[in-house]
Amino acid sequence: MAMYALTKEPNDIRPLETDEFSAALSLAWEVFSEYEAPVYSAEGTEEFRKCLNDEAYLSGIEFYGAFENEKLIGVVGIRGEAKHICFFFVIGQKRANIIGKAVPCGAIM
Q1: Which of 1, 66, 88, 89 has its CA at 20 to 30 Å from residue 24's CA atom?
Q2: Dist. CA 106–CA 104, nearest whole Å
């Protein structure tokens, strides 16, 4: 089993404020469009785009951001009580960095 994590070093990781959600959703769309959309069907890509604009869907998600020099470079969204990760996006040039990576289970507890 693999887990994925926004790691703490050397970046600032924190819950996003409501006024930062737009930037987080833009980052998610940018990364999705570049890395995920090419392997999705047109319908799947459109469904993802719709969810980024669906206030009811987004209302139950806790968003956390990774910042580098106060610039948002990664976002993770966790859905409610189930603690299900429903968004995990890191800008391209940071993907191979320690911002988002697979970690052994229990390593982030």
Answers
A1: 1
A2: 6
Say how far apart CA 66 and CA 16 lie, in whole Å.
9
d(CA 16, CA 48): 21
Tokens 């800008």, located at residue: 91
Contacts of 80 (CB under 8 A, 6+ apart): 60, 61, 62
3-state secondary structure 18-72: HHHHHHHHHHHHHHHHHHHHHHCCHHHHHHHHHHCCCHHHHCCEEEEEEEECCEE
Query: Which candidate, 95, 48, 102, 52, places its Cα nearest to that of 73?
Result: 95
The pTM of the whole model exceeds 0.85:
no
pLDDT score for 4: 58
Asked if 27 contacts 91 with a C-beta cutoff of 8 angstroms, the reply is yes
